[in-house]
Amino acid sequence: MSYLVSRYRHHQRWTDAEVMHLRIIDRLKRVQGAKHEDTLMMMAELATIYRDQKRWSEAEQLDAQVMKSSVETLGPKHRDTVVSMVDLARIYFDQRRWNEAEQLQTQVIEVGSQILGKGHHHVLSTMDDLDITYMYLKQWAKLEEVKRQAIEWRTEYLGADHIDTVESKDSLDAFLKRKDMAKDGDDLYGYT
After folding, report:
1. Rounded Cα–Cα distance for residues 133 and 114 (Å)
2. Integer Cα distance of 20 and 29 in angstroms
């Protein structure tokens, strides 16, 4: 059944994928319980289907439920809990809900770097999202700090010549040039 669900998603047969997920979730809840890891994983996958369709309310509701249940069942410092935080932070980010995104993104980086490791793709990609969040919030000092931290961690875990490390360095250089050229109080990126 898992293969069939992935094929539906691959071919963007959203209704079929949703119906299949709902059936599986219902069965998992009856057999293993609503807070079992397999049930939560399938709910998170359904939230991803909603997110792919920009069905924000449904995706947020499911991801929030998964995160809450993960914290209660697995604890706040479990890998799956961190991943559920990444998913919910991404929903806030995609909707430009910057303050809510920032709160979860900073938690993901703090806890995720301890649980998953500083070089894990969830941690590093969340740092990239936090970078953009700070840009929209016009928090320039925090923006610079997260850019520098991303370079440090990418250099340590991916190497100085890795494309992601090089792109992080280029991004910091561009930011510093804008900062040097801007007058006090200027919006460095022209976002209001």
Report:
1. 22
2. 14
